[in-house]
Amino acid sequence: KEEKQRLRKEKKQQKKNKEKNDEKTSHEGEKKKNKKKKEEQPAVPAPAPPPPAAAAVPVPASEAPAPADKPAKSKADLKAERRARQEAERASKGKKGDVGQPAPTGKLKAPPSELQPVVKRLPEHVQVDNPEVVKKLAKKLERQQIPLRSDYGYKVSLFSHLHQYSRKAPLTQQLGIPSTVIHPAIVRLGLQYSQGIVAGSNARSVALLHAFQQVIRDYTTPPNEELSRDLVNKLKPYISFLNQCRPLSASMGNAIKYIKKEISNIPSQCKEEEAKIKLLNCIERYINEKIVLAAKAIAKYSIEKISDGDVILFPPNCSFNAFEKKRKFRVIVVDSRPRLEGREALRRLVQKGISCTYVLISAVSYILPEVSKVFLGAHALLANGYVMSRVGTSQIALVAKAFNVPVLVCCETYKFCERVQTDSFVSNELDDPDDLIVTRKGKTQLEHWQKVPSLGLLNLVYDVTPPDFVDLVITDLGMIPCTSVPVVLRVKNVDQ
Amino acid sequence: MRPGLHEEWGEIDLTERIEAFLSDLKRGGSGTGPLRGSAEMARETTALLRRIAAQARWSNAGDLMEIIRTEGRRMTAAQPSETTVGNMIRRVLKIIREEYARSRGSSEETDQQESLHKLLTSGGLSEENFRQHFAALKANVIEAINELLTELEGTTDNIKMQALEHIHSNEVIMTIGRSRTVEAFLKDAARKRKFHVIVAECAPFCQGHKMATSLSEAGIETTVITDAAIFAVMSRVNKVIIGTQTVLANGGLRAVNGTHTLALAAKHHSTPLIVCAPMFKLSPQFPNEEDTFHKFVSPHEVLPFTEGEILSKVNVHCPVFDYVPPELITLFISNIGGHAPSYIYRLMSELYHPEDHEL
Asked: Which residues in chain B are contacts of A440 at CB distance < 8 A?
C-alpha cells in the first residue's frame, strides 16, 4: 500500500511536469490506481461486483492493445510509463509471495476487451489449507474487531481446505458486551445461524435482509461522509462476522450484492431520511418479489404438474407450504440423519391434512417403486446446470433416475449463481462432526472418536446434483430445463 | 442300560435342543436379542443337524432326509429372513444324497441334475427313493457333516487371505454398515498396505459406527459419513467392498438397506463393487417373492414415539433389507475364490440338489 501511494505521488509529480492534458490523465490514472487498490484488498467473501467497464480493467502486463478510451496519441508514452510502473509493482508483490497473486494472474489472463474479468477472487472459506490466506483473514478481522473462529476436531484429509466448526463454541462467546463494532441485530443473527436456529436458504436470506433493514434504520451518516460510501463500509465487518458464524450461501451473496448496488446508487444530494426510506423500500420489495411471490409462483406452476392420485417424494429442504387442496395426492417425506429436518416438514404436511409416509434415506430404493414424481428443493443453481442442495439430494435423484421417476427441482431465480462446480468436494460446508454421534440402547460407539487418531467424522452439508438427473426446474419465471440457468443469469444481468 | 431308554433320553434332549434353537431364531430376528452373525448361525444349524443325524431314529437315508426336511421347514418358518439356516439344511441333504449314492456304488455324476436328455430317455421320475439300508451310512454322514463344519470355520480365513490381491496402496475403499467378513478382509490387508476406508453409517441401526471404531483401532484411516453423503463422496472412492446377508440364485443380493443406493452410485461412477460373501450365504431363492423378501422392524427406530400426535396419521416404514440386482455387482469373493455374478447359478448346482430347493 505504501509503495503504491509513493508511486502515485511520483506519478503525480511527473505529470505536473508534463503538458496541460496531463491533469485529466493523472486524474483518470489515479482513479485507475484507486480501483486497482480496492480490488486487490483481501477478499470479501461475498464476491465483490466486478469492475464495471473496460477502462477500469488494469492493463495486463502482457502486450495488450491500449484501451479504447485513450484517443490522444501523446498519452501513449504516459501509458507505457504507467504500465511499466504497474509491472514493477506486480513484480515486487510477487517477491513477497503475496497471495493476491492469483488475482492479478487471473486478470493477466483476462481478455482486454469489454468483457468482465473471467476469474473472480477465490473465497477465503475454501482456502483454509493455505496459511497465508488464513493469516490475511486474521489480520482483516482484527482490523474490523471481529473474533476469529477456530476449527474443531480432526478434519478428513479430503476436506482440509474447508473449515469445520463446533456448534458448542459460538463466535459470540468471544465478543465483548456491548459490541461497539457490530450491530446487535447482526450479532443475534450470527448466533442464530451458527446454532442452526435459522436454517434453510430462504429463511437465512430473509433474516439477513430484515437485519439489514434494522441496521439501516439505526444508521446515521457521520459528518463529512457520504451515505452511499460509508454505509457500504459499515456493512463490511457485519458480513465478515456473519461469514465467520456460518459461511454465506449463494442466495445471501446475491442479496448482499443487490443491497450494495442499491446503496451505491443513492445520489449524493439525497437527504439522509429520504435515502433510508428508499433503501428500506428496496429491501422490502426484494423480499416480496424474489422470495415470497416467487414461492407462490413456483407453487402455482407445481400444482399444474401434480395430478390426482400422485405420490410425491419430498426431501425436507423443499420449502413448500403453499399447497391448495385442488388435487388429491399422497406425500412421502424422506429424511436423513443427523439433521432430521423432515420431521418438521412432516408436521406441517399432516396439519394440512395430506396423507404422508415417512422413511429414512436408506429406504429410498424400497419406497421408490410407489412414487410417481420427485420434488427437490435447491440451495443454489450453478451456471453449468448443477443443482447445489442439501446432502442426499443427489442420491435421491440418482435412485429416481434408475427407477425412471421424473425429478423436478423448485428454485427461485435469486438463488441462481454464476459459480460452476462439478463435485461436492471443492466448495462445501462441514458441519459439527459431533452431530453424528448417536446413542443407541445406551451405547455410544463414537463417543471417544477424538481420542482415536485414525478416526474422522464427516458431516457434509451440501452436495451437487448433475443436470442429467434433473428433468425440470420450476422457477418463478416458468419451467426451464437445468441447462438454461446461464441464459436466465444473462438476462438478469442485462436487466440490471 | 437299556438301549431304548438311552435312545429316549437322547430324543428328549434332542427335541429340547431343537425347540431352544427355534425360539432363539424367533427372538433373534426381532432385533431385541443379541444380533448374531450368519457364520454363528450356520455353525449352530450344522451342529444341530449333526446331532439329529446322530441321535434321531432312522434306518435309511430316506427317513433321515424326511426328518431333516420337517425340522428344516419349522426352522425356516421361525425366521424366514435367516436364510443361512435353510442353506445349511440343503447342504446336509445334499451330503446325505451323496453318501447314499457312494454307498450304493453308483458314481456321483449319473444322478446329478436332471438333464433334458435324461428326462426323455429315462421316462418318468427317477426311481431313487433312498430306502436302502446301509450300515455305514450314519458314520459317513456324520463324518461328512464334520467336514462341512470345518469348512464353515475356515471361511473367514479363506476370504481374508485374498485381501491383498484386491487392495492396492493408497486406495479409498467404501463400505456400508457392519460385516464381520469385510472387517476381517480389510484388517488383513491393512497389515501390509496403507489405505483409507469410508464407512456409511447405515441408519437407523448405525452399525457403521461399530465397524469404524473397530477398523480405526486396527490403525486404518477411517471416516464415518451419513447415508445421505454416499453419492457425494463416491467420486473419490476407488472400490466399494460390502458384505451381504444373502446371495440370491440369480447373483443378486439381499443386503442391508442402503446398499442399493450405494450400488447405483458406484455404477454411476464406474467404481467396482466387490461383495465378500462366504458360500453358506448362497441361497436358491429368487428375488421375486415380494411378500417374503422384505423384513420390517419397528418404526420406532425411524420415528420415535416421542414425536407424539403425528404418529397416528403417518405411515412409517423401516425395511431392513435391500435388493441389489446382479448387473450392479462386479465381483463376488467367497471362500472358494472370486466369481462373477453370472457364475453363481453354477455354484448353486454344486452345493444344492435341485429337488431340495423347496424344502
From this structure: 205-206
Determine, for residues B313 and A355 on separate chains, whether the beta-carbon distance falls below 8 Å: yes
Strand order across the beta sheet in which B246-247 lies: B246-247, B253-256, B321-324
Q: Which residue of A has its CA nearest to B231?
A: A395
A370-404 pLDDT tens trace: 889 898 888 999 989 899 998 899 999 999 999 99
Question: Mean of the pLDDT values across residues A18-40?
Answer: 48
Rounded to whole angstroms, what are the CA distances from A94 to A27, A128, A140, A240, B224?
Answer: 27, 21, 21, 27, 42
Task: Note the pLDDT of residue A324.
Answer: 57
How high is the mean pLDDT of chain A?
75
Hey, is the C-beta of B231 within 8 angstroms of any chain A C-beta? yes
Checking if the pLDDT of A200 tops 60, the result is yes
Angle between helices B38-55 and B61-78 (to 10 degrees): 140
Number of H helices, E strands in chain B: 13, 11
Q: Which residues of B touch A464 (CB under 8 A)?
A: 232
Q: For chain B, what is the mean pLDDT?
A: 84
Look up residue B149 and give its amino acid: L
Strand-pairing partners, residue B338, are B333
Taking residue B209's Cβ as centre, other Cβ atoms within 10 Å add up to 26
pLDDT tens-digit readout, B192-207? 999 999 999 888 888 8
CB B60 within 8 A of CB B131: yes
A97-134 b/e with 16+ CB inside 10 Å = b? ebbbeebbeebbebebeeebbeeebbbbbbbbeeeebb
Say how far residue B105 (Cα) sits from the centre of its chain: 33
Q: Does B103 touch chain A (CB under 8 A)?
A: no
Residue partners of A106: CB distance under 8 A and separation at least 6? A117, A118, A119, A120
A297 sits in which H/E element: helix A294-305
* A39, pLDDT greater than 50: no
**Nearest chain B alpha carbon to A403:** B264
Q: Is B307 on the interface with A (CB under 8 A)?
A: yes
From residue B183, give the alpha-carbon distance in Å to each of A356, B175, B254, B283.
39, 10, 19, 23
Q: Is B205 close to A440, i.e. CB distance below 8 A?
A: yes
Across the A:B interface, residue pairs with CB atoms under 8 Å apart total 164
Three cell numbers written together for B42: 450356520
- Residue-wise pLDDT tens digits, A117-131: 555 667 777 777 778
**How far is it, in rounded angstroms, from Cα A440 to Cα A420?**
41
Among the ranges given (A191-205, A397-411, B293-307), the one the predictor scored with the smallest mean pLDDT = B293-307
HSE-up (13 A, CA, CB side) for residue A366 = 27
Question: Span B259-287, mean pLDDT?
Answer: 92
Helix and strand numbers (H, E) in chain A are: 15, 13
Residue contact A356–B230, C-beta within 8 A: no
Q: Nearest CA of chain B to the CA of A369: how many Å?
A: 13
pTM of the model: 0.79
H or E, element range at B173: strand B172-176
Cβ–Cβ gap A398/B261 under 8 Å: yes
What are the grid coordinates assigned to A247, written together?
A: 459461511
* Most confidently predicted of B96-105, B259-268, B341-350: B259-268
pLDDT digits (tens, 9 = 90+) for A53-78: 333 333 333 333 333 334 445 566 67
**Three-state SS at A234:** helix
Cα separation, A161 vs A425, in Å, equals 9
pLDDT tens across A330-350, in order? Answer: 888 888 888 888 888 888 888
**Least CB-CB distance to B264: which of A359, A399, A446?**
A399
Q: Which one of A359, A440, A452 has the shortest CB-CB distance to B217?
A: A452
C-alpha cell, A461:
452439508
Amino acid identity at B243:
G
